[in-house]
Write a structure and sequence with these properties.
By secondary structure, the chain is of the alpha/beta class. The chain contains 16 helices and 7 strands.
Length: 410
């Protein structure tokens, strides 16, 4: 249906242009060209905001303009025509406003087209695979992820929209009131959060069946600090029976200025403005030119140092033990032979140390641990990149977790 509608608008517009050229209606031709340019600009300005309906709205407006010009040409209804193009003859400020829309919208359209053909490079607000010492992903996560929302305590958290459910978890929706089913929560970073429909807690649910309620509480970019905060206010609300806790990668990641425990996100109004601007490709092009390598003057500071990392794990453990909840920790996997861990000068070289710190703490305190790092040692085919599983990897980890749950049940 929409294909035919779009085709109709194209035919009418081309028809009008041809007629105006033949009739040598220079003034009307200029007006029509001006309106087409205005609508072209308008389309690229609203595209990031209402992506699914931007094209339809623009075509409806163009159809209205076509009808107005046809009425003016063939029916001589000058009053209708004058009202519809009155915006072209009003005060200077309005003209400036319209010219601004055309200028900005045209630039956005050109950048959009050039980026689609990979002729220009745009800045990515969130680059998981970036390498500079100046990396600090926190503000990028806060402002750059569409599926996350601002939170003054957690910095960012899942929205209540796809791929998350109305409670901010991935997976099936369960009632807060407990039934006789075992309730299992998985707290972690991006490797727990996973992709939209591919993550190991989902495969655990498939393996265990409906006698268990699985909650994926993983959030990309989170540290043990944020995981602990979420556990604190969700524990008495949802009453889990088993909690799996997997952090470390982002704990040792760079923090420019302040660690997580001292960090404050930008004010909500600033975050809203940043999120709005980052929807436009012109902003991303501008940021790409501005981005500078500051690696020489930045001293390494982890988001969560090793002492606080242990304290966060210990605090999460104590919360669970006091409530009779089984607590299990997991080390953070990575591709063993990756150059990031052999020659890298960034925080990644500390990931194995954080894993070892977790092993020592778990063994000293008799805390159950699933050593995911060693389980996937030199199993590169299970990884999507340096540190995230592919579908095969998630399914294998789900099998390992299932076996552990069965041991707990016995």
């Amino acid at each position: 249906m929409w294909i035919y509608f779009n085709l109709l608008v194209y035919i009418l517009t081309v028809f009008l242009l041809v007629v105006l050229i033949i009739k040598k209606e220079k003034e009307d031709l200029k007006k029509l060209f001006y309106i087409i340019l205005l609508l072209f600009s308008f389309y690229f300005l609203i595209l990031p905001i209402i992506n699914s309906n931007a094209k339809r709205l623009t075509y409806f407006l163009m159809l209205s303009v076509d009808i107005a010009f046809i009425l003016n040409l063939y029916c001589k209804i000058e009053k209708v025509f004058k009202k519809l193009i009155l915006l072209l003859k009003i005060k200077s400020l309005t003209k400036i406003f319209l010219l601004s829309i055309i200028t900005i919208g045209t630039i956005e359209g050109i950048v959009f087209i050039l980026s689609e053909f990979n002729l220009i490079k745009l800045y990515s607000p969130l680059i998981i695979m970036g390498r500079g010492k100046s990396e600090d992903w926190r503000e990028a996560h806060i402002t750059g992820e569409k599926s996350k929302v601002y939170d003054p305590l957690l910095f960012w958290k899942p929205s209540n929209k796809y791929p998350y459910n109305s409670y901010g978890f991935k997976g099936k929706i369960f009632d807060k009131t407990k039934t006789g089913k075992k309730r299992i929560f998985f707290y972690g970073d991006s490797n727990t959060d996973g992709q939209d429909e591919i993550y190991y807690p989902k495969f655990v649910q498939d393996l265990l069946g409906d006698s268990f309620e699985i909650f994926n509480a993983g959030v990309a970019g989170w540290t043990s600090y944020q995981g602990l905060k979420r556990l604190e206010f969700e524990c008495d609300e949802w009453h889990p029976d088993i909690v799996f806790f997997s952090f470390g990668w982002n704990d040792c990641a760079n923090a420019i200025g302040k660690e997580d425990k001292e960090y404050s996100p930008p004010p909500k109004i600033i975050v809203s403005i940043q999120r709005f601007l980052l929807q436009y490709k012109t902003t991303l092009l501008f940021l790409n030119f501005l981005k500078k390598d500051r690696t020489k003057n930045i001293k390494y500071l982890p988001r969560v140092n090793k002492v606080d990392y242990v304290e966060n794990i210990k605090a999460a453990y104590n919360i669970c033990i006091k409530r009779g909840i089984q607590f299990v920790v997991l080390t953070r996997p990575y591709v063993y032979d990756s150059t990031f861990f052999k020659t890298d000068s960034t925080f990644r070289r500390f990931v194995p140390l954080y894993n070892e710190t977790l092993r020592i703490f778990a063994n000293e305190n008799n805390i159950p641990i699933i050593d995911v790092e060693r389980e996937f040692y030199k199993k590169d085919s299970f990884f999507l990149d340096e540190s995230h599983f592919n579908t095969k990897g998630y399914k294998h980890l789900a099998e390992v977790v299932k076996e552990h749950i069965e041991k707990i049940e016995k």
